[in-house]
Amino acid sequence: MTSVNGLILIPIGEISPEDLFEAKRLINQAFRGKLEIHVSTARINPPMHLIDWDRLQYRADHVTQWVSSITPTIRRAGYLVVGVCGCDAYVEGLNFVFGLAMPALGAATVYTRRLVARSKEQYIERIAKEVVHETGHLLGLQHCSDKSCVMSFSNSILDVDRKSYMFCDKCWRKVEDRLNVDDEG
Ligand SMILES: [Zn+2]
Ligand SMILES: [Zn+2]
């Protein structure tokens, strides 16, 4: 296992880097300051061919592969990459996904279209929860049965609102173990 040096958040499509800067505060709390987090100020647009025109949704697995393919240098430097997309997406077999992690590629994506809330505060908190959740998967964590843990599975926006953006103690220990791996090990 190679060491994890940090996390890069990339705004994709209809999302403002400012919203990600605000979410970063909460994400940083979830990782208790132990993960270096950067927000890319350059917003990029997803290629049109990643849209499924029959469903007017992006294919989350294709978008995640694309995010991985455009970030080889930063991933090789030990950074995990999470693309935060202002759109809606799905994977085969599901109507939609809030996010998708592909640990083998070191990349994940989060989709904010269904996270839009009445208040900006709630919207930012929902984004933070999904980013922390997908980053947890990139660190090797599975879903957690503790409904308040950020690693619990969210089937609906109610589930997202029910959980916190923090890891339960059990999951946090796994995160810490993974963050403590160095290249020698
Ligand atoms: Zn999950
Ligand atoms: Zn947990």
Describe what you observe in this structure.
This protein has one domain: Collagenase (Catalytic Domain), CATH 3.40.390.10. About 35% of the residues lie in helices and about 20% in strands. The protein contains six helices and eight strands, in the order βαβββααββββααα. The longest helix is centred in the last third of the chain and has 19 residues. The radius of gyration is 15 Å and the shape is globular. Bound molecules: zinc ion (2 copies). One zinc ion binds next to α6.
Overall mean pLDDT score? 95
CATH C-level class? Alpha Beta
- Regions with little confidence, pLDDT below 50 for 5+ residues: none
Question: Strand order, biggest sheet?
Answer: 2-1-5-8-7
Oligomer: single chain
Q: What is this structure, in a nutshell?
A:
This protein has 185 residues and is an alpha/beta fold.
SSE layout:
Blueprint: E1 6-12, H1 17-30, E2 37-39, E3 51-52, E4 57-59, H2 60-69, H3 72-76, E5 79-85, E6 89-90, E7 99-102, E8 107-111, H4 120-138, H5 157-162, H6 169-179
Parallel strand pairs: 1-2, 1-5, 4-6, 5-8
Antiparallel strand pairs: 3-4, 7-8
Helix pairs in contact: 1-4
The structure holds zinc ion (2 copies).
